[in-house]
Amino acid sequence: MTRGLTQTDLLERDLELSRLGAGLAAARRGEGALIVLEGEPGIGKTRLLLEARAAAADQGLDVLTARGAALEHDFPYGVVRQLFERPLAAVAPPERERLLAGAASLAAPALESFEAGVPDYGLSVAHGLYWLTANLAERRPLVLAIDDAHWADEPSLRFLAYLARRLDDLPVCLAVTTRPPDADAVALSELIRDPHAIALQPRVLSGDAVIAMLAAAFGRDPEPRFATACAEATGGNPFLLRELVRALEADGAAPVATNIHAVRSLGPRTVSRSVLLRIAHLEGGAEVVRAVAVLAGDAELRFVAALAGRPAAAAGAVADELCAAGVLAPGRPLEFVHPILREAIYADLPDAERETLHAAAATVLARAGRPARSVALHLTLAPPRGDAAAVAALRSAASQALARGMPQVAVGHLQRALAEPPPEDERAAILVELSAAQLRSGRLGEAERHARESLDGAGGPLAAERRREVARVVLATGDLQGYVAEMEIAAAEAGDEELTFAIEAEMAGTGWRLPEVSRRIGDMLEQHAGAPGRTPAELAVLAVLSRYRVGTGHTAAAAAEMAQRALADGRLLASLPAESPPYLTAVYVLIVADELAAAERWLGRQLARAHETGTVIGITGGMVIRAYLRLRCGALKDAEADAWIAMNAMRASMILHVAAPPSMAVIVEALTAQGLLDEAEEALRATGMEEIPATAPYARLLYSRGLLRLAQGRPEQALADLRTAGPLEEPAGMLNPHAPWRVHAARALAMLDRGREAAALAEEWLALASAWGGASTHGAALRAAALHGDPASRLGRLEEAEALLAPTGVRLEHAMALCELGAELRRAGRRGAAAETLRRADDVARACGAEPLVARVREELGVAGARPLARRFSGVEALTASERRVAELAAGGRSNKEIAQDLFITAKTVENHLGRVYGKLGIRSRKAIAQALGHS
Fold it and tell me: Are residues 187 and 261 in the same domain?
């Protein structure tokens, strides 16, 4: 009788089927589509997805499938593994290598064994999975069909959201079904609320459709009152209606008005009652379905048999009967034909029986050697019993969850481990692990409480390590003073030279921003200045110490020498992760000390290592430092491009890293120097901050806004920003050579007719710069002092400034010095020398892309009576920062795909950039790019 139900599965679903067909057609055209089927359980989402999968297969598209499950929500990358494991296993090794080549190799942590802890690279894994998807789609258009996305794990959802934003350029249809998300389901909401998503919300069945389904099921038209009662009992939900019909059939009820009482008696328990009625005759049926409901994704027949207390052969026979009854789906492992069936059976279990079954499931899975994650899922739902093996499984599962970016899951496992309870000698270690997980999940109060609790009874190096964890939590709360205090205690407790060095280096890397302790920390580090650099901790101390030597009475040469010692021919990079702050600190010191070529070499090594290991934090950190290096070199478009790459990487990861403010600062400075003031203002607005915080992490952004306000002719606002930013980066009188705020503050004061203050500030900067001894800093300070000081000394100072700046490679500052020197030579009546100097200034300023400076130089040339220079609106100078970066990589032999992988953009975007590059450079082929760039 119920066989006729299959003929009515798609009643009133014509709109949804049409939109699904349009999504498949888009994928065939290479355009990509995101389709979201959202609705209550049983509304028909899964049936529609199955129809789309069948249609895709008929049309020659590849179809990859996955389904979220309630008990697998905490399984990191579980949905990802369902999607990609089968297609990767099905191909020969050479093809697998091709699919996982290039950036796709970054997907490895999501696809590897979950017994091995892998650092959470977040974005890099999503980026790798995107390119794995792109590589798979090269063979033929692809459909990714994800059912029950509301139960998908968080890392998989982050990847799907990352992919959804890049579908335009891929022949991929991403189709997901989901229930309406909870308010805290951020990644799921971002995915299904994507502005380009085709959103489908199947409605409940109309009265006519209910009648049609009942007629198909019973083989006769139902009486009107009976049909109305069925519609009311199920709310027009297709799945509930089908289950109601099955239950009525099992009771032998006909579709007549006299059986309305049977409809109403089934009511809310329609599903579970239907299942139990259908299997009442089957010996062991109830035990098997309950075992399947409890085991969920681990419902292999051997485990189901053990949990149901039956021999494997008997359990298999029962499972086959349950398949025939439409309760279980065909195949292995065992699963229900619909998640609602599992939910209904599971919900009907008494609490005590459910807990007992989960405890038994944990034992069965542990004895079978199943992953700790699987065992832990059941332990968290079972009562504590003081089992040391359970504690070990929970700790192992927590470590894996933390490594894959699910700290909340780790917190749950560790809290459960404490409740077991653990052996007394393990309790403190678990408290430390719990504190670290809570810190990463933002639960700072609990993290600090548990970290301090772990200190009880500890001494020596162990106490120092635990005290360091306390300090890290305190730092996360924003209490910098408290952090330093805890770290100083940890260093005193260490009792081990290597550990002491490591603690002091870590403390110094952050604590220097605190004025009242900066000098004390610097003095402490100076005690280790003679360290030979044999160990990673000693090298880290030297790296941080080189930063302290920037402006604390030491010269540029001394700071650079210390930084070079720390870098130690690559030993520091080899001994620490690619994102290590000490390494990047040492490279930064080389930049401010004018060792630009050395800094470029060390950055190249760091970025290569970061790409090799797939750490986006390392890639981002390296790109930000390189952006600053290029800004110093006057390569404004390159600096802007590198900073945007870093910002794109951080935005794609959905969490803005600590490098976001300095990245945006470089962008604003580079745009301002190029004369793109509206774009610079827009970049500031894109930060989403109505006001920039007056704190050290935002000092550079405040400084860059001050430069923009100067360029906009708003000196009062510029002066306020610059006077706020400067002291934030100069605690305890430390010099700040990389952000010469006094120079620009003096300009603002001069614009406000406060010349005496401007001169005093410029002279103050000159004294500091002279003591520092860096040629570029000294030259910049001489230029500023010349402009605001005694006119009689102006020409001499400008000549000295130009001579100092010329060999440094700090081109923009050199161009400004040449411009001012040329203007002063003109005022002195030396027109020939003025014209020659100004033409040099024009060459350097144009190479930098500094259009406002170019305009000023050419104005001065006109006043000097020199022939006007032709302006160029095409060629290399016309390329945007992004176009220039793409062109350089293409000239270096990189393919469109490789360029896209390097720059965190899509291949289509690369193609569009290259099209504009061809037009601006007047070329027709890729081979001509290198020559065109070289001629510039």
Answer: no
Query: Same structural domain for residues 168 and 222?
Result: no
Phi, psi at 909, each rounded to 5°: -65, -40
Peptide bond between residue 421 and the one before it cis (omega within 30 degrees of 0): yes
Q: Are residues 562 and 608 in the same domain?
A: yes
Task: Find tokens 């520092």 and name the residue.
Answer: 772
Say if strands 142-147 and 62-67 run parallel, antiparallel, or are unpaired.
parallel
List for the chain the helix, strand, coil content (%; round to 5).
Answer: 70, 5, 25
Which tokens go with 99?
């699919």
Of residues 791 and 271, the one with the higher pLDDT is 791
Are 728 and 702 in contact by the 8 Å Cβ rule? The answer is yes
Bridge partners of 177, per DSSP, are 37
Report, as an integer, the average pLDDT of 857-883.
73
Q: Are 643 and 623 in contact (CB under 8 A)?
A: yes
Residues 6+ apart with CB under 8 A from 933: 876, 887, 888, 891
Indicate left, alpha or beta for 875 from its phi (over 0: left) and psi (-120 to 50: alpha).
left
Q: Helix, strand or coil for residue 69? A: coil
Q: In what order do the strands lie in the sheet with 198-200?
A: 62-67, 142-147, 172-178, 33-38, 198-200
Q: Does pLDDT of 902 surpass 80?
A: no
Q: Does residue 82 sit in the same domain as residue 220? A: no
Q: Would you tell me how many other CB atoms lie within 10 Å of the CB of residue 89?
A: 8
What are the tokens at 24?
Answer: 């498949």
Task: Answer yes or no: pTM beyond 0.90.
Answer: no
> Which pair of tokens denotes residue 105?
């190799």
Query: In this predicted model, what pLDDT tens digit does every residue of 571-587 receive, in sequence order?
Result: 888 877 776 778 888 99
Answer whether residue 896 is part of any domain.
Answer: yes
Query: What b/e sequence results for 431-443 when a residue is b if at least 16 CB atoms lie within 10 Å of its CB, and e otherwise?
Result: bbbbbbbbbbbeb
Q: Which residues contact 767 (CB under 8 A, 6 or more apart)?
A: none
Distances (CA, A) of 698 to 569, 695, 704: 33, 6, 10
Residues 217 and 179 reside in one and the same domain: no
CA 771 to each of CA 22, 523, 691, 737, 768: distance values in angstroms, whole numbers, following the listed order:
70, 19, 35, 11, 5
Element (H, E) at 434: helix 424-440
CA distance 603 to 599: 6
Res 209: pLDDT:
94
Helix residue ranges, H only, 457-535: 460-476, 480-494, 497-511, 515-526
What number is the average pLDDT over the span 385-399? 92
Run of H or E residues at 791: none
pLDDT, residue 119, reads 41
Residue reference for tokens 């990509």? 32
pLDDT class of 881 with cuts at 50, 70, 90: low
Q: How far apart are CA 668 and CA 660, in angstroms?
A: 12
146 beta partners: 66, 176
Specify the CATH number for the domain of residue 120.
3.40.50.300
Residue 653 has pLDDT above 50, yes or no: no
195 shares its domain with 268: no
- How many Cβ atoms from other residues are within 10 Å of residue 532's Cβ? 10
Between CA 157 and CA 150 the distance in angstroms is: 9
Mark whether 12 and 160 lie in a shared domain. Answer: yes
Q: What is the structure's pLDDT at 393?
A: 93
SS3 818: helix
Measured CA distances, 750 to 181, 713, 758, 797, 899 (Å)? 58, 12, 6, 19, 46
867 exposed, middle or buried (CB, 10 Å; 0-12, 13-18, 19+)?
exposed
Mean pLDDT of the chain: 86
Burial category of 908 from C-beta neighbours within 10 Å (exposed 0-12, middle 13-18, buried 19 and up)? middle
Tally of domains within the chain: 4
Residues 164 and 264 in one domain: no
Whether 176 and 36 have beta carbons less than 8 Å apart is answered as yes
Domain region containing 540: 496-614
